[in-house]
């Protein structure tokens, strides 16, 4: 089992000095991407507003203090959460920082068999609030990014669970639908030993009810907000190297910390089914609209000739660099060079990146975007299938010296009469904080 290197950091990356308090103040520097966590307030529950949870099991938690939302506060929140756990829960939530554990993430509804961590469904109310407090402090504060976006992914998965989610085709996304307000009390306990592939292969057994009503076995099909897992790889401290590892169906968040700073915010996988829905209270959810629209705006900003130049030679029914594909970046850039675009078009490319980069706390995302702006002249955009991003195998990619983002449309698994989204955000040098070699 390969352990993380203690000091290897990628060359040629952004460095930044930051003072971090953890009992005593320390002046820290780093040779890797050094970005500190900023205030990460949770989105407050709302009603009749787009993308704001109004009710349900995964309504947004309130962080301890916006003023303390830095790496030290994330460390403190993590330690507080771990202290609430029993021995068995602790063994699941805190594991060694090995390559095997770090790369054991998946987009599949495979529970704890393909990812480490303690399941949300195995936590009591106080533990769950403490876990969500960690995430509110660690993730971005945007309306449909960071913590707010992740919480809406859980709601979507509750719809899949309650609406027949074993992979049943032949239905439409529900309108005026309740989500379950309870969480499961059982979860798989197997420690992951391998990484699942990214293709969903569930088969039909029934038609969805489109009622969203919870049943006794609502989580038995692998979907649901209770089947998201939080793990800390290594010990959360202000002067060590560790990872916050969180995910479930259609979601994998990997944040790497070293010496009190964030050194990696990727890999970040996010997908969605259904792509939008309306709850009974009138709340409209479309947590990936900004991602979808940003890519559309970028493609629509190209001339006819540029669009032709950006077309890729291959077709893609899923992302290329999903789970199990670490380090498998293409050897050569493909598509259209962003250096050939106007300043206005280049700004659309940068805007398209923002929703993915904003998974990180706000200050971290801003610094990453500045790095990617500086690298635009060496960045390429490409597409295949179609540029409407509304049909199976419509695919778009942004590939730079650092940034790698893919967005693809797939036929629905539960709601088979519509497409759903798979996307992944990676960084050529900062995946897993640059601590692993592939």
Structure summary:
Keywords: Signal. Helix content is 23%, strand content 19%.
Structure notes:
With 438 residues, the protein is an alpha+beta fold. It folds into two domains: 18-273, no CATH class; 289-427, no CATH class. It is built from nine helices and 17 strands. The protein has helices spanning 71-83, 87-93, 99-102, 125-138, 146-162, 289-300, 304-310, 343-357, 362-374; strands at residues 18-22, 24-28, 94-95, 118-119, 175-177, 229-233, 241-248, 251-258, 261-264, 268-272, 277-279, 284-285, 336-337, 380-384, 395-399, 403-411, 419-427. Strand 1 (18-22) and strand 2 form a beta hairpin. Helix 1 runs antiparallel to helix 4, helix 6 (289-300) runs antiparallel to helix 8 (343-357) and helix 8 (343-357) runs antiparallel to helix 9. The model is unreliable at 5-69, 166-173 and 176-219 (pLDDT under 50). Residues 184-213 have a biased composition (Low complexity).
Task: Please give the number of β-strands.
Answer: 17
Uncertain runs with pLDDT below 50, 5 residues or more?
Answer: 5-69, 166-173, 176-219
Q: What integer value in Å does the Rg equal?
A: 20 Å
Choose one word for the global shape. globular
Report the helical percentage: 10-25%
Written as H for each helix and E for each strand, in order along the chain, the element string is: EEHHEHEHHEEEEEEEEHHEHHEEEE
Total number of domains: 2
How far apart the termini lie comes to 15 Å
Based on helices, strands and strand pairing, what is the structural class?
Answer: alpha+beta
The main pleated sheet reads as: 12 strands, mixed
Mean pLDDT: 79
* β-strand amount: 15-25%
- Count of helical segments? 9
Keywords: Signal
Signal peptide: 1-34
Region (Disordered): 43-63, 164-217
InterPro entries: DUF3500
């Amino acid at each position: 089992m390969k352990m993380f290197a203690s000091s290897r950091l990628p060359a040629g990356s952004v460095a930044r000095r930051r003072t971090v308090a953890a009992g005593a103040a320390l002046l820290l520097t780093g040779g890797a991407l050094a970005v500190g966590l900023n205030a990460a307030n949770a989105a407050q529950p709302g009603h009749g507003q787009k993308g704001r949870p109004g009710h349900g099991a995964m309504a947004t938690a309130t962080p301890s203090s916006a003023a303390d939302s830095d790496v030290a506060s994330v460390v403190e929140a993590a330690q507080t959460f771990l202290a609430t756990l029993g021995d068995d829960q602790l063994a699941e939530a805190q594991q060694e920082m090995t390559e095997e554990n770090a790369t054991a993430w998946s987009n599949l509804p495979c529970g704890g068999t393909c990812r480490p961590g303690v399941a949300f469904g195995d936590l009591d109310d106080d533990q769950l609030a403490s876990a969500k407090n960690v995430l509110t402090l660690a993730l971005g504060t945007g309306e449909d990014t960071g913590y707010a976006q992740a919480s809406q992914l859980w709601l979507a998965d509750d719809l899949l669970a309650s609406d027949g989610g074993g992979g049943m085709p032949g239905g439409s996304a529900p309108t005026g639908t309740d989500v379950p307000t309870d969480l499961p009390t059982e979860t798989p306990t197997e420690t992951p030993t391998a990484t699942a592939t990214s293709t969903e292969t569930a088969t039909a057994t029934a038609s969805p009810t489109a009622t969203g009503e919870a049943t006794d076995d609502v989580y038995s099909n692998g979907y649901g907000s209770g089947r998201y897992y939080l793990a800390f790889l290594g010990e959360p401290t202000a002067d060590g190297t560790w990872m916050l590892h969180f995910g479930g169906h259609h979601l994998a968040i990997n944040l790497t910390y070293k010496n009190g700073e964030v050194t990696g915010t990727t890999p970040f996988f996010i997908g969605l089914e259904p792509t939008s829905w309306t709850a009974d209270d009138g709340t409209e959810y479309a947590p990936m609209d900004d991602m979808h629209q940003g890519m559309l705006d970028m493609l629509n900003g190209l001339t006819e000739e540029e669009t032709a130049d950006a077309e890729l030679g291959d077709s893609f029914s899923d992302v290329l660099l999903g789970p199990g594909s670490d380090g498998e970046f293409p050897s050569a850039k493909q598509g259209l060079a962003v250096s050939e675009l106007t300043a206005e078009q280049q700004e659309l490319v940068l805007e398209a990146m923002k929703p993915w980069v904003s998974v990180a706390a706000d200050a971290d995302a801003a610094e990453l975007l500045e790095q990617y702006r500086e690298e635009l002249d060496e960045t390429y955009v490409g597409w295949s299938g179609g540029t409407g991003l509304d049909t199976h195998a419509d695919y778009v990619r942004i590939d730079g010296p650092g940034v790698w983002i893919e967005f693809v449309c797939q036929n629905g698994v539960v709601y088979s009469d519509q497409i759903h989204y798979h996307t992944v955000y990676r960084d050529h040098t900062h995946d897993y904080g640059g601590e692993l070699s592939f």
